[in-house]
């Protein structure tokens, strides 16, 4: 087959192993000098796209990222994993802080149309905001079907059979392309980018665009009022007997 | 701490000092003999000896703290430590490389020293069998395909851009010369941890084979892996596995042999052969693991008789009743 053009959205987020600290102005978290990496679910999305290409189902993989200049590092990782080219929608740091899935999904939708994409894969959610909205909004703007929380994707007679992880277990749906898929944890295990590919990635094309080029309004719709640490966990109390436990529960009004 | 080792989850700093623990960063920060500035110890007669200076330079008399570093508690018990700590590096990169021969591992080390120099913070290796058991027993993923040898190179520095440039030049060179056939680079904390665990979990993986016969030796670079090959030939089918891994950057090999259950005949074919082999090449029969109870009677393979006698004299002087960690480290007269 090898006919699909697959777009994959990648977000640069604070590395999940970092101990996040709240900013002194309580309006966000400290990002300066903090280790960042590709959102783990987006890595899984890229890996799935690369596997489709290896199975000769996908013809071209385009990695896209919206954000400040450093997003290019994330895109280079995507290229090293096997994407063919990258598009960076550059947004200044200050402006980037004010936007979210609403604006990003509009940008991705425009790119999908411009690039004539057959399939758009994104991670199910970003580990910094945990919004879980971009994939869904993207499908809505494109008026495409969506298969979210994918844990398996199989091509069947030109359609996609997707197994989804839902609250009750697993649900299998068939979607016609073009469509949006959001990647869940068990979809695959992303590969390590090997040196020859890392070297090759440096030469792969990376296009730069601006939100204005895509006709997207960057007015913030959400204002962050306050960011706080979760309350410190207080020590529990050890009791000597079942009677004491019962009396303590009574004291607190639990029974 | 200028020291990091596989046992980090359970070891104590006092013990590290008493055993002069080596670990994975000795290449960069040197041994505890250099980084420990002072020690407070308790002597056999109960005297608390205060050498707990935090001065970088102090040449007043004999440097007594050295007596307690690495003597395995046989001359005194370490109760306080003053240690020189380097700045925590701002940027850490780890590369995991595949080599087709041990000569390539050594050639890559030469390149690493030449090109990474002051930012090189670790250079470790593991062989094909080590990777096999990591995958088999611990369900780990090999980031690369199958190679006879794997090398872990770590850089630590204060400037990410500077270190990455140096690392990239190094990687391009070793790929071009063919010393390295394949590799991957990690800059994310999570990926760095995964790659390090490939090296640090080997001891755990080996235990799944059954009984492990562990040897920790220092050897000259040229003979470094030869001992593993010679041992493989010697034990043949009596052993499940013979592996080599370790701090190749320091010349320190961890040679491990496994069998399903403890076999006295297998042990007899390993010892004293392994110690004789090391002695023949003027190496150390215990690079960092010390002598303890198990190896104290092999000390003569790495130390001269006059040296051993002086150690026995010192032990007699400092612990005449033999109460400090008795029967260990230095054989009794």
From TrEMBL, chain A:
Lineage: Eukaryota, Metazoa, Hemichordata, Enteropneusta, Harrimaniidae
Residue span, Electron transfer flavoprotein alpha/beta-subunit N-terminal domain: 26-218
PROSITE patterns: ETF_BETA
Statement: the UniProt record of this protein carries the keyword Mitochondrion: yes
Highest taxon in the source lineage: Eukaryota
Subunit field text: Heterodimer of an alpha and a beta subunit. Heterodimer composed of ETFA and ETFB. Identified in a complex that contains ETFA, ETFB and ETFRF1. Interacts with ACADM.
Record function comment: The electron transfer flavoprotein serves as a specific electron acceptor for several dehydrogenases, including five acyl-CoA dehydrogenases, glutaryl-CoA and sarcosine dehydrogenase. It transfers the electrons to the main mitochondrial respiratory chain via ETF-ubiquinone oxidoreductase (ETF dehydrogenase).
Family: Belongs to the ETF beta-subunit/FixA family.
Keywords, in A-Z order: Electron transport, Mitochondrion, Transport
Alphabetical list of Pfam families matching this protein: ETF
CDD domains, sorted: ETF_beta
Entries under InterPro entries matching the protein: ET-Flavoprotein_bsu_CS (IPR000049), ETF_a/b_N (IPR014730), ETF_b (IPR012255), ETF_beta_N (IPR033948), Rossmann-like_a/b/a_fold (IPR014729)
Protein name, as recorded: Electron transfer flavoprotein subunit beta
Gene3D superfamilies: HUPs
Subcellular localization(s) per the UniProt record: Mitochondrion matrix
Biological source species: Saccoglossus kowalevskii
């Amino acid at each position: 087959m090898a006919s699909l053009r697959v777009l994959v959205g990648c977000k640069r987020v604070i590395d999940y192993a970092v101990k996040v600290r709240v900013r002194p102005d309580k309006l966000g978290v400290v990002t300066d000098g903090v280790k960042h990496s590709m959102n783990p679910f987006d890595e899984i999305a890229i890996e799935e796209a690369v596997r489709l290409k290896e199975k000769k189902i996908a013809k071209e993989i385009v990695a896209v990222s919206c954000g400040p200049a450093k997003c290019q590092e994330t895109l280079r990782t995507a290229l090293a994993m096997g994407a063919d080219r990258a598009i960076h929608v550059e947004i200044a740091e200050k402006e980037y802080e004010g936007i979210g899935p609403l604006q990003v999904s509009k940008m991705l939708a425009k790119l999908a149309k411009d690039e004539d994409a057959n399939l758009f894969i994104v991670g199910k959610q970003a580990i910094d905001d945990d919004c879980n909205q971009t994939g869904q909004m993207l499908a809505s703007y494109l008026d495409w079907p969506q298969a979210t929380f994918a844990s398996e994707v199989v091509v069947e007679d030109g359609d996609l059979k997707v197994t989804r992880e839902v609250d009750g277990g697993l649900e299998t749906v068939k979607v016609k392309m073009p469509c949006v898929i959001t990647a869940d944890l068990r979809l695959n295990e992303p590969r390590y980018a090997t040196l020859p590919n890392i070297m090759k990635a440096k030469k792969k094309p990376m296009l730069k665009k601006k939100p204005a080029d895509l006709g997207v309004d960057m007015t913030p719709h959400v204002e962050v009022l306050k960011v706080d640490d979760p309350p410190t966990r207080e020590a529990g109390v050890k009791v000597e007997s079942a009677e004491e436990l019962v009396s303590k529960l009574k004291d607190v009004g639990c029974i | 701490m200028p020291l990091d080792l596989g046992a980090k989850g359970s070891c104590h700093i006092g013990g590290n000092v008493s055993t002069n623990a080596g670990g994975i960063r000795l290449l960069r920060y040197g041994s505890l003999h250099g980084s420990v500035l002072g020690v407070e110890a308790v002597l056999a007669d109960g005297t608390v000896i205060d050498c707990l200076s935090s001065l970088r330079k102090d040449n007043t008399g004999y440097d007594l703290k050295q007596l307690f570093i690495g003597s395995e508690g046989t001359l005194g018990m370490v109760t306080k430590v003053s240690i020189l700590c380097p700045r925590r590096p701002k940027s850490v990169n780890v590369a995991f490389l595949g080599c087709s021969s041990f000569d390539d591992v050594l050639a890559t080390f030469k390149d690493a020293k030449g090109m990474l120099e002051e930012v090189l913070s670790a250079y470790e290796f593991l062989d094909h069998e080590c990777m096999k058991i990591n995958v088999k027993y611990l369900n780990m993923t090999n980031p690369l395909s199958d190679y006879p040898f794997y090398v872990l190179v770590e850089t630590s520095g204060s400037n990410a851009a500077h270190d990455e440039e140096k690392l990239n030049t190094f990687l391009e060179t070793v790929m071009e010369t063919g010393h390295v056939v394949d590799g991957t680079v990690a800059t994310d904390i999570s990926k760095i941890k995964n790659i390090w665990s490939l090296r640090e979990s080997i001891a755990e993986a080996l235990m799944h084979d059954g009984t492990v016969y562990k040897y920790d030796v220092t050897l000259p670079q040229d003979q470094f892996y030869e001992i593993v090959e010679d041992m493989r030939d010697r034990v043949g089918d009596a052993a499940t596995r013979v592996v080599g891994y370790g701090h190749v950057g320091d010349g320190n090999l961890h040679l491990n042999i496994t069998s399903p259950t403890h076999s006295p005949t297998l042990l007899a074919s390993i010892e004293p052969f392994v110690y004789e082999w090391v002695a023949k090449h003027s190496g150390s029969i215990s690079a960092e693991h010390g002598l303890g109870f198990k190896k104290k009677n092999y000390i003569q393979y790495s130390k001269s008789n006059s040296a051993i006698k002086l150690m026995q004299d010192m032990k007699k002087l400092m612990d005449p009743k033999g109460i400090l960690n008795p029967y260990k480290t230095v054989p009794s007269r």
